[in-house]
Amino acid sequence: xxxxxxxxxxxxxxxxxxxxxxxxxxxxxxxxxxxxxxxxxxxxxxxxxxxxxxxxxxxxxxxxxxxxxxxxxxxxxxxxxxxxxxxxxxxxxxxxx
Length: 97
Prior knowledge:
Layout: H1 3-9, E1 10-13, H2 17-26, E2 28-33, H3 39-50, E3 54-62, E4 66-69, E5 72-75, E6 79-86
Helix pairs in contact: 1-3
Organism: Methylocaldum szegediense
Function: One of the early assembly proteins it binds 23S rRNA. One of the proteins that surrounds the polypeptide exit tunnel on the outside of the ribosome. Forms the main docking site for trigger factor binding to the ribosome.
Family: Belongs to the universal ribosomal protein uL23 family.
């Protein structure tokens, strides 16, 4: 896999109550990733960007919500979320910087 592709796989970290609890309890970090990304690509991208070792990757597709503004109905885009579990001894500090 090319490094340019790997650099663009991860779009953003997800900072929420649920993701913070997962980080504290199970060393899992949540990321918003490209919809076309596969588990091996996500694993290599996290290892490349953050210099850590990944134990496992869990992926889920999130459906966009249907929103309404007056009589117009629209839909937000679907997106993909990845929970990355780190090996013991590794940590990612998303609050720094």
